[in-house]
C-alpha cells in the first residue's frame, strides 16, 4: 500500500508551528494553535499535568495502545537576573549554542501575557569598542538581552512587567526556498509535529484507522530531557519523532528519514526498530539507520523513567541542529510516510 501525505500541508503547518513560540515549558501560545489544528482534522486535545497535549485516535484493534511523540518545545532562554543597567542576564533552556544566536531578535514573555522584544548580544558586542569582541567565548556569563525599550535600570524593566523566570523565545527566521529547503530555527521538532498532522489529514480524508489505538503526544520538556518521562499506563510502545543528525559519522541527509538505532543513552528496541527499517524498505523510502551521540529523545526519556514500553525513534534529517537549521521538505515527507506505514502495520 502506498501512503499519501500533502507536501503543501507539511510546509504550511511547519511554518505555522515554528512561528508560534514554545520554548521549554511555555505553552500559552502553542496550545491554542494545537487545539485549532486538532479540531480541523476531527480530533480534540487533552492534557496531562505536565501540560503534554494528546490526540487519541481509535484503532482497528483497541486492545493495544501505542504512543507517537513529537515534542512541541524548542530551545530557548529564561530571564536569570535583571541587571542594574536594564539588561537581562540569561539561563539556558536546552542545548543553546550562544555562538549562533548572537544578534538574534528575541521576545520576552511575561507572566501577565505581554511580550517585549529585544536583541541578544555579547557583553563585548562591538569590534569598535572591545578588544575581545572577536575572541571572547560566547557563553552564558557574557551574553545578555537588550530590550527594545528605553530602560536603563532594573526598576524600569520591572515596570514593563518583566521578572526573573520569564521565558525568552528566539525569532526563528523561517524561510522556504523554491528548491524545497526549509531554513529556520526549530525545525527540531516542529516539522515532526507537522508530519503528524499531515498523516491525520489523510486518515480523515480516507476514513482509515490506525491498526492499534494511537495516542499522539506533544511534550514540552524534551529539550531538557524529561518530556517523555511520564506515559499513560495503557501505552505499550513509544515511538519518538525527532530530528536525524547530519555529520561525518552518519549516513543521514537533508532528504532522508533517519532511523535511530541508539542515542546517547540507550539502544532502542531491536524488534521495533527492525520493523521500522523493514517498513521503510517496503515503502521504498529514502532512509538511513544511524547511531547518534550528544542526542536523546522522549523515547529514551520514557525508558530511563522506568516505563514498561518498547521504544524507537525516527525523523527528518536536519543540518546544523540547534542552530539555524535546514532540511529538505522531502525529509519531512519521508518521515510522514514512515509514520503512516507504522500506524497501519500489525
Automatic annotation (TrEMBL):
Cofactor: a divalent metal cation
Active-site residues (renumbered): 222
Gene Ontology MF annotations: aminopeptidase activity; metal ion binding
UniProt: Zn(2+) 1 binding residues: 71, 188, 242
Cofactor note: Binds 2 divalent metal cations per subunit.
Domain of life: Bacteria
Positions bound to Zn(2+) 2: 188, 223, 322
Any Pfam family the entry gives: Peptidase_M42
Any single biological process term in GO: proteolysis
Keywords: Aminopeptidase, Hydrolase, Metal-binding, Protease
InterPro entries: Peptidase_M42, Peptidase_M42_aminopept, Peptidase_M42_dom2
Family affiliation: Belongs to the peptidase M42 family.
Protein name: M20/M25/M40 family metallo-hydrolase
Amino acid at each position: 500500500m502506498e501512503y499519501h501525505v500533502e507536501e503543501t500541508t507539511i510546509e504550511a503547518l511547519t511554518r505555522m508551528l515554528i512561528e508560534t513560540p514554545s520554548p521549554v515549558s511555555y505553552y500559552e501560545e502553542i496550545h491554542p494553535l494545537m487545539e485549532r489544528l486538532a479540531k480541523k482534522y476531527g480530533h480534540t486535545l487533552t492534557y496531562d499535568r505536565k501540560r503534554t497535549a494528546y490526540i487519541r485516535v481509535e484503532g482497528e484493534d483497541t486492545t493495544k495502545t501505542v504512543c507517537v511523540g513529537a515534542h512541541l518545545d524548542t530551545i530557548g532562554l529564561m530571564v536569570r537576573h535583571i541587571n542594574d543597567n536594564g539588561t537581562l542576564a540569561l539561563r539556558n533552556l536546552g542545548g543553546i549554542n550562544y555562538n549562533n544566536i548572537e544578534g538574534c531578535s528575541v521576545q520576552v514573555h511575561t507572566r501577565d501575557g505581554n511580550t517585549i522584544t529585544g536583541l541578544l548580544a555579547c557583553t563585548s558586542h562591538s569590534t569598535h569598542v572591545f578588544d575581545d569582541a572577536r575572541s571572547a567565548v560566547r557563553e552564558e556569563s557574557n551574553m545578555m538581552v537588550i530590550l527594545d525599550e528605553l530602560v536603563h535600570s532594573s526598576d524600569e524593566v520591572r515596570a514593563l512587567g518583566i521578572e526573573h523566570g520569564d521565558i525568552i523565545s528566539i525569532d526563528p527566521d523561517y524561510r522556504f526556498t523554491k528548491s524545497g529547503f526549509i531554513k529556520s530555527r526549530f525545525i527540531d521538532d516542529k516539522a515532526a509535529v507537522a508530519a503528524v498532522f499531515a498523516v491525520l489529514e489523510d486518515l480523515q480524508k480516507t476514513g482509515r484507522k490506525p491498526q492499534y489505538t494511537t495516542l499522539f503526544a506533544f511534550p514540552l520538556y524534551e529539550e531538557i530531557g524529561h518530556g517523555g518521562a511520564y506515559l499513560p499506563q495503557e501505552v505499550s510502545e513509544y515511538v519518538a519523532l525527532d530530528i536525524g543528525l547530519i555529520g561525518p559519522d552518519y549516513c543521514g541527509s537533508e532528504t532522508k528519514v533517519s532511523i535511530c538505532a541508539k542515542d546517547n543513552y540507550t539502544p532502542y528496541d531491536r524488534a521495533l526498530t527492525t520493523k521500522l527499517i523493514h517498513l521503510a524498505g517496503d515503502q521504498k523510502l529514502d532512509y538511513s539507520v544511524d547511531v547518534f551521540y550528544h542526542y536523546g529523545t522522549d523515547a529514551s526519556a520514557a525508558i530511563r523513567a522506568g516505563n514498561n514500553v518498547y521504544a524507537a525513534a525516527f525523523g527528518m534529517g536536519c543540518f546544523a541542529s540547534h542552530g539555524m537549521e535546514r532540511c529538505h521538505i522531502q525529509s519531512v515527507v519521508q518521515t510522514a510516510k514512515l509514520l503512516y506505514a507504522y500506524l497501519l502495520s500489525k
